[in-house]
Write a structure and sequence with these properties.
The chain has 189 residues and is α/β, with parallel strands linked by helices. 46% of the residues lie in helices and 17% in strands. The protein has one domain (5-188): CBS-domain.
Length: 189
């Protein structure tokens, strides 16, 4: 049996969603309440889908975006001069920390200030490689995640975004399959 994105995706109604006009405080409350709503320890949403006025998904907000929003100095130099996952040298990371003087304010103060930021000012607008059709093979989806360094993909059909495919869900499926075949392999010895 060949799996498709549909087999492992979370549908939109299972996802944390927040309006682009909401505050960062609202977004973190939604993330927490979504986790509690499902009472599943294996489902810890780390992303909220952001919708516009017409309810269409226009972006995402992840823990990474929340952390970046906490430190206002990151906004001063706009787009970061590097991309996550590039394998930066430790010396470079340390020099940029010192040069930009980030994270010098007490974390509690940064959190208090960030709570009132608007989601639209913090959210990420996904690139075209972060969207995948619901009928796409799971293999192609995994390839898109690995080559794009994406922890999740927005799942679409002809109506727009209908859910999300998370690397963590694929990982859980694969771990269970490996255990199943590993158990059978031990029995065959």
């Amino acid at each position: 049996m060949s799996l498709t994105v549909r087999d492992l995706m979370l549908s939109l109604y299972q996802c944390a969603t927040v309006s682009e006009s909401a505050t960062l405080y609202d977004a973190v409350v939604v993330l927490e309440s979504t986790r509690k709503m499902y009472q599943r320890w294996d489902y810890r949403p780390r992303i909220a889908l952001v919708h516009g006025e017409n309810q269409a998904i226009v972006g995402t907000i992840r823990h990474y975006d929340i952390l970046k929003a906490l430190e206002p100095k990151y906004w001063e130099f706009g787009t970061l001069p590097w991309s996550p996952g590039l394998g930066l040298k430790k010396e470079f990371v340390k020099s940029t920390y010192q040069r930009y003087q980030v994270w010098t304010e007490p974390l509690q103060d940064l959190c208090r200030q960030a709570a009132q930021l608007r989601v639209k000012d913090v959210m990420r607008i996904p690139s075209e490689t972060e969207y995948i059709d619901v009928e796409t093979s799971l293999g192609e989806a995994m390839h898109a995640m690995l080559t794009g360094n994406h922890p999740s993909l927005l799942v679409t059909d002809s109506t727009g975004v209908i859910g999300i495919l998370r690397l963590s869900d694929i990982g859980s499926y694969i771990v269970n399959e490996i255990k199943k075949y590993g158990a059978n392999w031990d029995a065959d010895k």
